[in-house]
Input
Amino acid sequence: MIDYQPRNPRAYNPAIALIGCGGITQHHLTAYKNAGYNVVALCDVDAARAEARRQEFFPEAQVYTDAQAVLRRDDIEVVDIATHPADRVPLLHAALGARKHVLSQKPFVLDLDEGERLVELAARNGVKLAVNQNGRWAPHVAYMRGLVAAGQLGAISSVDMSVHWNHNWVVGTVFDGIDDLILYDFAIHWFDMVTCYLPNQTAERVYAQVRHSSSQKARPPLLAHVAVEYAHAQVSMSFNADTRMGSHDRTHIVGDAGAVLSSGSGLQSQQVTVYGAEGETTPTLMGAWFPDGFHGTMGELLCAIEENRQPSNSGANNLQSLALCFAAIASSRDGLAYRPGDVRRLP
Output
């Protein structure tokens, strides 16, 4: 039996504050409301945006435009920081400095050294720091992670992932201004999945290319592929974010004791098939990435606080995923292969 669904703490239900009330936070708050979490404060520089979230999800919460006022509240123990990366680092420092447990939006940081400083600050102040890598708790991803963790696939030799979808929706938004939109803002989920599927192996080299599709409307390149080399395994990723029809997402993990294939028309609709010595099985999975992934990230942080351990989606753990991401982006710029960790900042 693979335990793939989000967990809730047994008794711990602290006061939670959300800082940053942009579009993605509807999924945060939907998940928290469904889980019965105690959100008491909503903060955004745009008071109307925070007020709209309050009315829709947590009518008893207080609205703020000053994050420091939120952090001064002694009753708030956990802070979900969901601002854009450039604005997030000072808030992360302030929240950890105020001895709040923190869930950081992804991508965690733009600089691995800065990420390490935040991890050290959390440790010094005795608080937990987690990253909202919500893709880990998409039902198909969580199930495959569970298979790997249980050793049911044996030693993993390959992970092949392909994603075909339409990302042209970014036109007219701030996301259209992100040069490395696909490899950075989107593929960070897949780099993070790789670190989960190959938890005990160290990547040796990363190579990547990006291209503009002839028909795309978005400004950044929407085509990308990545190859990651390990001593005894290989990973391939292929992204086509200009797929107007026939969207499809596929992951195939092969080990020496079994394999697993997840496939479907989109990230919310996946069928998982497990192959082993005794044949194949197709488990019926409950839930969907949105909003269950957001339940999973916060639930794991709350469980880690209650159980006095590091969350599996800790800041330190997420730096491994960012190292893959930064190496891939550097490679896409100059055509060279890079060792993860050598590229310390987002190129």
Remarks:
- The chain has two domains: 15-134+301-311, 139-287+321-334.
- The two ends are 42 Å apart (CA to CA).
